[in-house]
Design goal:
The strands form four sheets. The protein has an eight-stranded parallel barrel. A three-stranded antiparallel β-sheet has the order 1-2-3, with no helix packed on it. Strands 7-8 form a two-stranded antiparallel ribbon. It is an alpha/beta fold. The chain starts with a strand and ends in a 6-residue tail after the last helix. Helix content is 37%, strand content 12%. The protein is globular, with a radius of gyration of 25 Å. Among the domains are: 5-344, Queuine tRNA-ribosyltransferase-like (TIM Barrel); 414-461, no CATH class. A hairpin with a 2-residue loop joins strand 7 and strand 8. Helix 3 (139-149) packs across helix 4 (169-187). The chain contains 18 helices and 15 strands.
Length: 578
């Protein structure tokens, strides 16, 4: 683990290999800046380095976005990839507009949530899905790119099959061998210069771009994370974990900087649930006879069993990242049964994309005293609201249920401390208007609170209402999805804050198990991820309803609207709307 990275488990039960974990991740930059994250924490996914629906100002405004993951395959349409041309410190942060003092960046070649079928990987390359088709990336190229862009965490190349399952034993053996070899390539020590060899697949341009100063590279070398390979096979997953811990020969140790094992060079482990779910659904999985893991018939329990097989022998003090959770219920099951430190919340952004405003808390509220989304307090409550629905057209309440505090930009919009100048607009009238609004807001807050604080917190405006978001959605306004994305990410972060609070309390582990059961009894479980496989017998909920209404609005207001209106007008004998 790099000297600037520190991860410690704070939970009293350090002996348990599995179960809920409470920890602290500290990243210290060379300039003395320090980023501290309490775990379990949230990871935000991106497309080409952009958080869906959000501008850079939105990202900087959101306290929920601290760790950002960047799939690199979307930059491979150019050679060399454009981010590798960025110079100066923190190249990837600067290229994508993230703040090194506030944001942790991780990168992998493939998008962990992308389960589209791909051509098979080769012995010396990984197939990646760029904007201009499939590209092949070699271990040497991946190392050169990551040394150049300097993310905080880099995920080693892993031979995950993206062909139709099930996979043969021969294919799984290849996957384990290739993944181990590619990890060793990434862990090899920094050299003073990049010299072309017979095995190097880089172009002359790539070689000229590579760093040549070993000390400069070593000072900014990212922490390495490894994906736990083995697909849906317990023996294969156990074999890969054993390969990470196997003592290396003298020659092998010399090739990776003297490390005794491959595991000694990694800072943590990652698990991609999306391809694993497909592998499980294609062939039932049962643990080996010697395992103490209980067999299960559903996908969630099968996932937990497979992850436990991979992690049984590995040190529990290293980071665990899980991509591909389907919603808060799925996240709670993994936190309880396996134990993880970082979870992505793509489901929060998927919900925002189809007009769903999330509204849930952990621990779950009591039924007797808390307001509910559904009228029947005894019924299972949905995880949010479909704001496309007509009942919200005149609903002027905020996005959160009364009593649930949310500090996102949609629920607690703030006036800027200074006027935002556009172009040459510098009129005294505009300045006077901003000063008057700020003074009026501060006076109102002082009168209500009895305080004399005149900070920017007093510049808070009323919450955006459900009716306003309903209007924006039906008029196909982009700002609707931006506000919902900010809100849903804040709800997801508050959810994990609730998990941390419960674990830090007296009897945290036992109380956490009880609160998970209460959460399941209060909220209806539903996959919030678009296109996720459903359990047998699972019915559609707010997401299915929202997708249908979103499609109707997209058809009426989206791309190609004028052509469709013209066709209808011709068929009906009337003129199309302008």
């Amino acid at each position: 683990m790099p000297s600037g990275l520190q991860f410690t488990l704070a939970h009293s039960d350090h002996a348990a290999q599995f179960g809920p974990r409470l920890g602290t991740l500290i990243l210290r930059r060379p300039n003395g800046c320090e980023i501290t994250l309490d775990t379990p924490t949230l990871l935000t996914s991106t497309s080409r380095g952009v958080v869906s629906h959000l501008s850079r100002d939105h990202v900087r405004q959101s306290s929920a976005i601290r760790w950002v993951h960047v799939p690199f395959e979307t930059f491979l349409e150019q050679s060399p990839p454009v981010p590798t041309l960025q110079t100066g410190p923190h190249p990837l942060h600067r290229f994508l507009g993230f703040v090194p003092q506030d944001h942790i960046l991780s990168t992998s070649v493939r998008d962990p949530d992308d389960v589209r079928q791909m051509p098979p990987n080769g012995p010396n390359y990984l197939a990646a899905n760029s904007l201009r088709g499939v590209r092949k990336i070699t271990p040497n190229e991946w190392r050169t790119y990551t040394d150049k862009i300097q993310p905080d965490f880099v995920i080693a190349l892993t031979d995950t099959p993206h062909t139709p399952p099930p996979f043969s034993q021969k294919r799984l053996t290849k996957s384990i061998e290739r993944s181990s070899a590619w990890l060793a390539s990434l862990l090899s020590p920094v050299v003073s210069a990049v010299t072309p060899t017979a095995s190097t697949d880089l172009t002359a341009t790539d070689l000229s771009q590579a760093p040549t100063n070993a000390s400069d590279i070593a000072a900014t070398k990212p922490a390495v994370l490894v994906h736990l390979a083995g697909a849906a096979s317990h023996p294969a997953r156990s074999a890969f974990a054993a390969a990470l811990l196997e003592p290396l020969s003298d020659i092998e140790r010399a090739s990776i900087g003297g490390l005794p094992t491959l595991d000694a060079g990694v800072a943590g482990y990652t698990i991609d649930l999306a391809p694993l779910r497909i592998a499980i659904s294609s062939s039932p999985v049962s643990p080996p006879a010697s395992s103490d893991i209980n067999p299960s018939t559903n996908i969630t329990s099968s996932l937990s069993a497979l992850l436990q097989t991979s992690l049984t022998r590995l040190p529990r003090t290293k980071l665990r990242l899980i991509y591909g959770t389907l919603g808060p219920h799925d996240a709670l099951h993994l936190l309880r049964d396996v134990g993880t430190d970082v979870l992505n919340a793509s489901w929060a952004l998927h919900a925002a994309h189809v007009g769903v405003s999330l509204d849930f808390v952990f621990p779950a509220p009591t039924r007797d005293t808390s307001p509910t989304i559904e009228g029947d307090s005894a019924a299972l409550q949905p995880l949010g609201r479909n704001l496309y629905a007509p009942q919200y057209a005149l609903d002027f309440a905020g996005l959160s249920t009364s009593g649930n505090t949310c500090e996102c930009a949609a629920c607690a919009p703030h006036m800027p401390d200074t006027r935002i100048v556009h172009g040459s607009d510098a009129s005294e009238e505009a300045d006077a208007y901003v000063r008057a609004r700020r003074a009026a807001s501060a006076s109102a807050d002082q009168a209500n609170d009895g305080g004399d604080d005149d900070s920017s917190a007093n510049l808070r405006n009323p919450s955006y209402t459900r009716a306003y978001l309903h209007h924006l959605l039906h008029t196909h306004e982009m700002s609707a999805h931006a506000l919902l994305a900010l809100h849903n990410l804040a709800v997801a972060e508050a959810f994990l804050q609730g998990v941390r609070t419960v674990l830090a309390s007296s009897g945290g582990v036992d109380r956490f198990a009880n609160e998970v059961a209460r959460f399941e009894a209060y909220y209806a479980e539903e996959s919030l991820t678009v296109g996720a496989p459903r359990e047998e017998g699972e019915k559609g909920g707010i997401m299915a309803e929202a997708r249908a209404m979103w499609a109707q609005v997209e058809l009426a207001r989206g791309k190609g609207r004028l052509a469709r209106e013209k066709e209808r007008a011709v068929a009906g004998g009337t003129e199309a709307e302008p």
